[in-house]
Amino acid sequence: MLTQIGRSLFLLLNYFGELAQLVVEALRSLFGAPVRWRLAMRQVVEMGARSQLVVLVTGAFTGAVFAAQTFFQFHRFGMDSAVGSVVSVSLFRELGPALSGLMVAGRVGASIAAEIGTMKVTEQVDALRSLGVHPVDYLVTPRVLAMMISMPLLVAECCAFGILASYLVAVPVFGIPEAGYLKNLINWTTGRDVIMSLIKGYFFGIVIVIVACHQGLKAENGAAGVGRAPTEAVVIASLGILGLNFILTFALNIFFPAG
Amino acid sequence: MIETRDLTKSFGSKAVLCGVSLTVQEGQTLVVLGRSGCGKSVVLKHLIGLLKPDSGEVLVDGESITGLPERKLTDVRRKIGMLFQSAALFDSMSVEENLAFPLQEQGIRDMKIINERIAEALEMVDLPGEQKKAPSALSGGMRKRVGLARTIIGKPRCILYDEPTTGLDPVTSDSINHMIRRLQRRLGVTSIVVTHDMKTAFHCADHIAFIHEGRVHFSGTPDEMRASKDKEITDFIEGRSGDTDT
Ligand SMILES: Nc1ncnc2c1ncn2[C@@H]1O[C@H](COP(=O)(O)OP(=O)(O)OP(=O)(O)O)[C@@H](O)[C@H]1O
Ligand SMILES: [Mg+2]
C-alpha cells in the first residue's frame, strides 16, 4: 500500500519534471531561436478560430441556465435585478475560463496530441531533427504562441455570449425590468473581473498545449501509442485546468479582489 | 570523416549493439550489411545523434558528438543528410513543400532557386513533375525516392542511406545505384549505405562492413568480401538460410 502510494507519487513528480523540461525547452526556443510566426498564425486559425463555435455555444447555454437558476432563487427575496451581475461576475471569474478551457482541451488538446504523436511514430519528428530543426521550435513553440493569443479571446467570447444569453433569458423571458438589470450588471462587473478571466484563459491555454505536445512527443509503439496520446492529453489537461483554476482563483483574488 | 568507437546500445533488456566500430574516410562509400533486425538502422541513427549510445563514441570530422545537447547537433546534422528507411516524408506537406523544407531551413528564400533545385532533385530520382502530389498519394517506392530527393537536395557533404533501393524495381534500383556513385565521384560526397541488395553493395562500396550479433563481423573491400570463406558471409551473399522445403 505505502509502496504503491510512493510509486504513484514518484510517477507524478516524474511527469511534472518532464513537463517542466518541455516548458524550459519552449522558453529557450521562444527567446533563443527565430520564432516561426507563419506557423503560429496558421495555428491561430486552426486551433483558435475553429474553436469559436464550441466555446460560444458553451458560453451561451451556461449563461442561460445560470440566469434561470439564479432568478428562481433570487426572485423569492425580490432581488430580480441582481441576476445579471451575479451571472456576469461568475462567468468572468470562474465559469467562462474553466468551461472554455475544458472545451478547448477536448478539441485542441486531442488534435495536437494525435498530430504530433503520428509524426513521432512515423519518424517525421526524427526527420525534422535530422534536418537540423529542433522539434520544440517547429512543433511546440508556434502552438504555444497560438494558444497564448487565442485562448484569452476565446474566453472573452465565451463570457460575452454567456452574458448576452442570460440577458435574453432574464429580461424578455422572466420579465425582469431592463433598466435595473443593466444598471446592476454594469455597476457590479469590474475591469478586475475581466482581467481575471483573461489571465486564467492565458494560463489554461498554455497548460493545454504543453500537456498535449508532451503526450504527442512521447508517443511510442505505433497506432496503439498514437491512440492513447489524445485521450491522455485531454484527461490530464482537463484535470490540470480544474486544479490550476482552484489555485488561480485564490491567488488572483489577492491582486484582483472580488466586489 | 565519420567514426564510431565501441558503440553499445540496448532497448530495455534487449542488447542491439555490443561494440560497433566503423570508420568511413572522406569521399568514400561504406556499405553496411547485416541480417534484418541486427541494428543497421540503429547504427545510422547514432551517427547524427538521433539516438544516444549507452557507451562508446561517435566522431564526426574528428570531434565527438556524443553528449552534445540537441541544439548543438544542428551543425553536424546540416553536414550529414539521412534517408530514413520509412522515407519519413512530412505528410502534411506536398512533395514540393517537403523538398523546399531543407532549403528554407538553410536560409534560401528565393522561390526561383528553390523551384529549380526541386525540379533538379526530382529529375535525379526519376520523378520529374511530381511536385504537387501529397505523400499519401504516392506508392511506397515513389515515397522512398522523394525521401531520397529531400536528403540530397540540401547538398550535404555526407549522406546516410537506409536501404535506398528496397521496394524499387530493378531498373529504378540501378539508376539509384548510379546516382549514389555519381554523387560520390562528382561532388565528393561521403556515403554510408545500409542495404540488403548485393547489387547495390558491390556497385557502390569502397568498403563493406558486415554486422552480426551486435558487432562488426567482417570489414574489408568488396573483393575481400567475395573471397571470404566465412560461413555467415557466404550464406549472406548467396542468400542461404540452411532451411529446406520438406
Ligand atoms: N526505438 C526502439 N525501441 C525499441 N527497440 C528498438 C527501437 N529501434 C530499434 N529497436 C530494436 O533494435 C533492433 C534493430 O533494429 P534496426 O531497425 O536497426 O534493424 P535493421 O538492421 O535496420 O533491420 P532491417 O534490415 O529490417 O531494417 C530490432 O530488434 C528492434 O526491435
Ligand atoms: Mg533498418
Tags for this entry?
heterodimer, A: 259 residues, mainly alpha, elongated, B: 246 residues, alpha/beta, Rossmann fold, 2 domains, binds adenosine-5'-triphosphate, binds magnesium ion
Provide a descriptive summary of the structure in words.
Chain A has 259 residues and is mainly alpha-helical. Chain A has one domain. Chain A is 86% helix and 0% strand. In chain A, helix 1 crosses helix 6 (135-173), helix 4 (83-121) runs parallel beside helix 8 (191-217) and helix 8 packs antiparallel against helix 9. In chain A, 47% of the residues are buried. In chain B, a hairpin with a 2-residue loop joins strand 9 (207-212) and strand 10. Chain B has 246 residues and is an alpha/beta fold. Chain B has a six-stranded mixed β-sheet with strand order 6-7-8-3-9-10, with helices on both faces. A four-stranded antiparallel β-sheet of chain B has the order 2-1-4-5. Chain B contains nine helices and ten strands. Chain B has helices at residues 40-47, 74-79, 95-105, 111-124, 140-153, 170-187, 198-204, 222-227, 231-238, and strands spanning 2-11, 14-24, 29-34, 55-60, 63-64, 80-83, 158-162, 190-194, 207-212, 215-220. Chain B folds into two domains: 2-79 and 157-238, P-loop containing nucleotide triphosphate hydrolases (Rossmann fold, 3-Layer(aba) Sandwich), CATH 3.40.50; 91-155, no CATH class. The mean pLDDT of chain B is 91. The chains are: A mainly alpha (259), B alpha/beta (246). The interface between A and B is medium-sized, with 14 and 23 residues. Bound molecules: adenosine-5'-triphosphate and magnesium ion (MG). The site of magnesium ion has 4 residues of chain B, from helix 1.
